[in-house]
Structures are given as C-alpha cells and as structure tokens.
Amino acid sequence: MADEPIRPGSEADFTVLADANKDRERVKLVHNERTKLSATMFNNVATAFFVGGGVAPMLGVSSASPSPWQLALGPVWLLVGFVLHFGARLILRSLK
User: Fold this and answer.
1) 40: domain range?
2) C-alpha dist (Å) from residue 70 to 21, 49, 50, 62, 91
3) Model pTM greater than 0.85?
C-alpha cells in the first residue's frame, strides 16, 4: 500500500492540499500580526509626540509664561504626531 503512487483525487492528495492551505493561512496571519504591531508602534510614537510636544506645553502655558521655543515648537510636534499617525494608517493598508 505504501508503494502505491498518489492518484489525483485520492485522500493523500487532499491532505497535501489542506496542509498547503494551512501554511498559506499561517503566513498570512503572521504577516498581518507583524503589520499591526508595526502600525501600533508608529501610533504610540505619534501619541508621544502629540502629547509630549504639543499638549503638555500648552497645558503648561496656563501655569507659567511660555518660552518662545515652546510657542514655536508646540505646533511642530503636533504636526509630527499627526504625520506619524497617518503613517501608521498607511502601514495598515498592507494587511492581507
């Protein structure tokens, strides 16, 4: 029995196809999880820029007079945060 050739449509043929499909699905799943992890990292960095460079100094304005650098760089950090966030959204477009 073991020496018999595999005939198209036999049980062994379907087993090989099922294993190939499982491997394909696993590769797709791993790709998607890595993509989501990369997008999450980008979004976390964007949040740090947004909060640390944009929101925090503006909240500090109410307690003390802001330096010219704070006034000039606050909007820049906000912009960098938004750009990184939308970069994360672009990364998610490669999901399969």
Assistant:
1) 36-96
2) 56, 14, 14, 13, 31
3) no
